[in-house]
Structures are given as C-alpha cells and as structure tokens.
Amino acid sequence: MGGAVPESYGDRDTSGRTILTVTLNPSVDRTVEVPSLKRGGLVRAIGGHVEAGGKGINVTRALAAHRIPSCAVVAVGGAEGRHLAAMLEADDIHSVLISVAEPNRSNISVVEPDGTLTKINERGAALTEEELAQIRDGVISQLPTAAWVVVAGSVPDGVPDSYYGSLVRELRAHDVKVAVDTSGPALSAAIAEGPDLVKPNRAELQEATGREVLTVGDAVAAARMLQQAGARSVLASLGPDGAVLVEPGGAAWHGEAVAQPRSSVGAGDAMLAGLPA
Q: Is 269 part of the annotated catalytic residue set?
C-alpha cells in the first residue's frame, strides 16, 4: 500500500455535472468551546457557532467551498427546519428542501482545548412513507445533471433499514455513481445493492464485518469483506491512524499526524467529498 490515491477517481470527468447529496436526518448543529467540561457545575463558553448539519449537507458544504457544483436534498420540518433552510440560504448552499411534518433535531458538540469532543445528538424527525416517497422524487428530479449521488447520514425513526438499499438500487439504474455513508443494518442493506463507494469509520467497519479493526491491515481486510458483500470501493476513516481506500485494483493508505486537533466534526464528510470531486 502506498500513500497515493488510485487514479480511478481522479481521471473521471465530472465537469459540468453536479454531485447530489441526500440527508434524511439533518440537524441544527451548535458547537460550544469550553476551557474544560465539568459535570454538575457552571461552565462558561469561550467560543462557538451554529450551522446546518447532517452528513450530506457537510459533503455539499465542503464541495461548495472548492467551487464544485453540488446540490443537497434535505428533509426539513418545524422551527428547526426553517432555521436550517435559512442557514443553507445564508451559506449559499444549493439545496432542494423536502417539507416534512415533524421538526428536525438539534445537536450540541462541546469542544475542549485539547480536542476532546463531547456530542449530544437528538434522535431526529420520524418520516412517513409519503415523505420518503417525496424525498425519493426530489432526488430523481435532480439526476439529469448529476454525476454522483452521495446518500449520507443516520436513518431517522419511521424509515425502514431497507430504504437506503432501495434508493441505491434505483439510482444504479440511472447513469450516476452512488456513494453511501451510514451505519448498522442500513449500511448492510445498501452494500447488498452494489454502491460504487461506501465510507465507514473504524467502528462502523467493525460492526459491518463482525471483526476487530486494530491495524491498517485489519482495515484493508475488513474493507475487502465489504467488497465481497457488494461494495465496489471502500473508503475507511481510522481516526489518528489515517484512512484506507480499497478498490478492485488495490489499496492505498494515508495518514498524517495533527499537532493540535480541535474537533473531528465533519472530518469524514469532508474526506468523502474529495473522492467524487
């Protein structure tokens, strides 16, 4: 294994076409920076910000920052959904908003100076069959200009584990590449439908394969198991151990120490954005 990314992504011409992302379970993400986190006491924040969150939104934001065309299909509901929509517009993120009945979730990330991250995530809005059909229609409507579709994030209440798999199956019938970033049974169902790329982290890779991932070699072996299950390529993020990309033609690893990490929020999403681009 080397540190270089294989050429099979870099030589693919996506000029003039959009990378479409799908976020079923978006969130209003508030990040709070504190000098230290003490349970049961008063902690005064020393910094922070609020932004529209969710894996697909994060991917589109990373692409937009590099002037790469992207569109986020997002389920929005309630006051939180209106806040999400306003933030997406303020950030000039091109989006297709699908209105749902229940309010979106709010998440809190507490970051300490040494990079320690504590996350509090709400469950998110339950989605009905009718709303899921509307989301599917919103995705399909954007396919004529899409080169890739990135289906990303957790599956909210009311959504069957098979939904991502059925979406992958339908997308593969069109002339688009499909990437999936989720976990648990939803990931397994999606892999069975043959996506072009999946992006588990270490814990998700272990869960999907039932084997420990302690080394880079373990990660490559586990990724090959996901290939055998149906995924064409696997991009696995391993935290401080870097990341591996396993494709039909071989595997590549890259890792670089970060002197003072402040937060890992969105890191995997930003990495995922780089491959379809």
A: yes
